[in-house]
Amino acid sequence: MHCWSIILAAGSGTRLSAATNGIKKQFLTWKGAPLFWHSAITFSHTSRMRGLVFVFPEEELEEATDMLTKLDFGRRLGLPWKVVAGGARRQDSVYNGLQELPSSCTHVLVHDAARPFFSASLSNAILDVLTSGSNAVIPTLPVTDTIKVVSENTVDHTLDRSTLQACQTPQGFDKNMLLDVHTKCNEEGWEVTDDASIAEQAGFSVTTVSGETSNIKITNPEDLAMIEQKQATMPVPVTGWGYDVHRYGEGRPMKLGGIPIQGGPEVVAHSDGDVLLHALCDALLGCMGEGDIGEHFPDSSEQFNNISSGVLLNEVYDKFLQKGYTLTNVDLTIIAQVPRLVPWKPQIKKNICRMLKLNDEQVNVKATTEEKLGFTGEKKGIKAVAAVMALRG
């Protein structure tokens, strides 16, 4: 799977213009950044995401691109991105975005920038179904209100709400299928409200996954109160500390922070034995009050035999983000008499930044010895400690 996302931020926002002094809703500020940026950050925390296409109003394309460049200073997103002008209708904007996708892209998520509160877990749920072979997947929630069909202020009939679902974004698709049906839509002059409607009209089945009640869409002036309410919730600082050891002996080739250490001693381990990533997992679990790595990935389970510690970190970090935590700083220390780790520190740091989507100044990697004391000093093993700072809420 090679998935990109199209973030639709080209709407005019006419229903909100009076309440926002003419500022389009996708550019409204929440937590110090425009709404479209929060969607981008969430996608950057989706491990299978490979890139983003932003669709902005044509008249504000240059200004929005400058804004995006400043927001992504230091490659904060950790993903390539492109910018394109939107069209007159939503479907035109999506079509323009599809033209910017690279040929290597196999799947695409289409998302409205006015829904900034969705989670990475929702994106992953959609991608899981796409991976299983579905051409189109959308998140939905059951309709709780009674829905009436009304004509000229008179109720015509009442719909059976047990069969009704409210649709959300992001919506996921096979890229080639979506491009083909959008082309047909343009040629035949269809008018649709979302991309799933185009797939349906073209005869494709659309699969649903459970949506999120927090995944609201900013549409009317009263919706602004939701942003203000969320802004009023102050995040709580939290810390986590992790520690792990592995002894040397016939076993796994040494890896630290996901980087193979050529010439290093082999380590005895059930997984791949990456002591640094294990300590980091424990620190993240500590922030959440979620126990330790052994509880989540027991070494008694054959499922985790020789598993990549990067996979374990990805699962822990996904849970961390899904629970609303924001990682701010990571400080890591490797303790070993052998091998000499100074040459490897820059690569380890770079890889940790990539896996956690953090900037250089947010990650520190240290290596030290214990002056030939203890089991590390006697060259019998290696240990690592991790300290992390985060915000909850």
TrEMBL record:
Site label Positions MEP for the nucleophilic attack, positions: R161, K217
Domain 2-C-methyl-D-erythritol 2,4-cyclodiphosphate synthase: 239-389
Keyword Metal-binding assigned: yes
UniProt KW keywords: Isoprene biosynthesis, Lyase, Metal-binding, Multifunctional enzyme, Nucleotidyltransferase, Transferase
GO molecular function: 2-C-methyl-D-erythritol 2,4-cyclodiphosphate synthase activity; 2-C-methyl-D-erythritol 4-phosphate cytidylyltransferase activity; metal ion binding
Region ranges (2-C-methyl-D-erythritol 2,4-cyclodiphosphate synthase): 238-393
Coiled coil: none
UniProt catalytic activity: 4-CDP-2-C-methyl-D-erythritol 2-phosphate = 2-C-methyl-D-erythritol 2,4-cyclic diphosphate + CMP; 2-C-methyl-D-erythritol 4-phosphate + CTP + H(+) = 4-CDP-2-C-methyl-D-erythritol + diphosphate
Site feature: Transition state stabilizer: R15, K25, H270, T369
Metabolic or biological pathway, per its Swiss-Prot or TrEMBL entry: Isoprenoid biosynthesis; isopentenyl diphosphate biosynthesis via DXP pathway; isopentenyl diphosphate from 1-deoxy-D-xylulose 5-phosphate: step 2/6; Isoprenoid biosynthesis; isopentenyl diphosphate biosynthesis via DXP pathway; isopentenyl diphosphate from 1-deoxy-D-xylulose 5-phosphate: step 4/6
Residues that coordinate or bind 4-CDP-2-C-methyl-D-erythritol 2-phosphate: D244, V245, H246, H270, S271, D292, I293, G294, T368, T369, E370, E371, F375
InterPro entries reported for this sequence: IspD, IspD/F, IspD/TarI, ISPD_synthase_CS, MECDP_synthase, MECDP_synthase_CS, MECDP_synthase_sf, Nucleotide-diphossugar_trans
EC numbers on record: 2.7.7.60, 4.6.1.12
Signal peptide (UniProt feature, chain positions): none
GO BP term, pick one: isopentenyl diphosphate biosynthetic process, methylerythritol 4-phosphate pathway
Function (record text): Bifunctional enzyme that catalyzes the formation of 4-diphosphocytidyl-2-C-methyl-D-erythritol from CTP and 2-C-methyl-D-erythritol 4-phosphate (MEP) (IspD), and catalyzes the conversion of 4-diphosphocytidyl-2-C-methyl-D-erythritol 2-phosphate (CDP-ME2P) to 2-C-methyl-D-erythritol 2,4-cyclodiphosphate (ME-CPP) with a corresponding release of cytidine 5-monophosphate (CMP) (IspF).
Stated family: In the C-terminal section; belongs to the IspF family.
Protein name: Bifunctional enzyme IspD/IspF
